[in-house]
């Protein structure tokens, strides 16, 4: 039993280290792309800003009224809930009326919340957090019913786990909830074994629409 646990831990550490290497390489590419994009934007502004305005109009895509995903949750034998319909992935500049709390996917803002083990003590915008889920992050949320001890223990666990983020969501149904793209479950506390299982399965899991995409270089409080 001990050797099996050690093997699982070693495998998970190797997986996290590989994600970190991928993240660092992606950050270097993103910095180069950002510099190039900045030059293009400045040139566009000198010409008159017409291209930039048109691009922003196109990027808004769906509005809050027509971006709502249709579907419902089905509960698996392991207690994980799965959204029944395909979740849209459009970038929008407006608020999104998500059919679940916290949201597990759908249209979202073009900027993600940093999710490299980031802990936010204030509520974050759903539209930014959903973009993090698209990149393969797990979002740990809690409300005022969660114990202070659990919140602190969860913070420590999140800080040690790349591709995770944590924030309060007061109007969620249960004290502590875990969300990934199209997936969600409730846990009883920081010591609930289902917490580690959810991390192992859904951090950069098969459900991820954009595996390996950045979890840094986005929005931070």
SSE blueprint and pairings:
Blueprint: H1 2-47, H2 50-60, E1 73-75, E2 81-83, E3 116-119, H3 126-134, E4 138-142, H4 148-159, E5 164-168, E6 176-180, E7 183-186, H5 193-202
Parallel strand pairs: 3-5, 4-5
Antiparallel strand pairs: 1-2, 2-7, 4-6, 6-7
CATH topology of the largest domain: Glutaredoxin
- Estimated helix fraction: 25-40%
- Report low-confidence residues grouped into runs of 5 or more: 39-67
CATH architecture of the largest domain: 3-Layer(aba) Sandwich
The helix count comes to 5
Strand proportion, as a percent range, falls in 5-15%
What is the first-to-last residue Cα distance? 42 Å
Shape descriptor: globular
Total number of distinct structural domains: 2
Mean pLDDT, all residues: 83
* Class of secondary structure makeup: alpha/beta
Tell me the total number of β-strands.
7
- Spell the H/E element sequence: HHEEEHEHEEEH
Task: Kindly report the spatial arrangement of strands forming the biggest sheet.
Answer: 1-2-7-6-4-5-3
Major beta sheet, specifics?
7 strands, mixed
Question: Over the alpha carbons, how many angstroms does the gyration radius reach?
Answer: 19 Å
CATH class of the largest domain: Alpha Beta
Transmembrane segments: 32-53
Biased composition (Basic and acidic residues): 14-25
Biased composition (Polar residues): 1-11
Region (Disordered): 1-25
Summarize the structure.
Helices cover 40% and strands 13% of the residues.
Which descriptors apply to this entry?
alpha/beta, 2 domains, seven-stranded mixed sheet, 5 helices
Walkthrough of the structure:
With 221 residues, this protein is an alpha/beta fold. It has two domains: 2-59; 73-202, Glutaredoxin (3-Layer(aba) Sandwich), CATH 3.40.30. Helices cover 40% and strands 13% of the residues. The protein is built from five helices and seven strands, in the order ααβββαβαβββα. Strand 1 (73-75) and strand 2 (81-83) form a beta hairpin.
